[in-house]
């Protein structure tokens, strides 16, 4: 698996799984009806943020990550990231590779920590993955997320010092 800078040419491969994940409404706080043009603008953020894709040896996009500042101004020393893995390629270590890549990126860019603002507590695979990489749950917003089948569930704030 290779992780490289994403380009606009990657969007047609990203959009189908981006749309499927977002419209399912189980893991992200994005609008469920986010259209393709708006979604591309939300995902492809300008520098100093970064967007990457994980690809296999054939060049197939397996997943993507968006890395950015968590806050502006005096809070701009904390990074954040969002990950999307094509469900057709889950269980192959793509999410782990993207998460590790983003931690290395944040450290190299001089960030002091990473914080995830809204990790849905029912997304137990993601919570376990982040914890295995050294993130801690530092708080939970009770009923902060309206899950389509579980109802109102908490969203974790997760943190890792760099």
What's the structural blueprint in terms of helices and strands?
Elements: E1 2-5, H1 11-24, H2 36-43, E2 50-55, E3 61-69, E4 78-85, H3 94-108, E5 113-120, H4 124-132, E6 136-147, E7 151-161
Would you kindly provide a written description of the structure presented here, covering whatever features stand out?
With about 160 residues, this protein is α+β, with helices and mostly antiparallel strands. About 30% of the residues lie in helices and about 35% in strands. It has helices at about 10-25, 35-45, 95-110, 125-130, and strands spanning about 1-5, 50-55, 60-70, 80-85, 115-120, 135-145, 150-160. Strands 1-2-3-4-5-7-6 form a seven-stranded mixed sheet. It is globular and about 40 Å long. The two termini are about 25 Å apart. About 30% of the residues are buried. The mean pLDDT is about 95.
Which characteristics define this entry?
about 160 residues, alpha+beta, seven-stranded mixed β-sheet, Acyl_CoA_acyltransferase, GNAT_dom, Mito_N-acetyltransferase
**How far do the termini sit from each other?**
25 Å
Number of strands: 7
The residue-averaged pLDDT reads 97
Low-confidence stretches: none
Secondary structure: helix percent: 25-40%
Give me a quick take on this structure.
By secondary structure, this protein is α+β, with helices and mostly antiparallel strands. It is 28% helix and 36% strand. A hairpin with a 5-residue loop joins strand 2 and strand 3 (61-69).
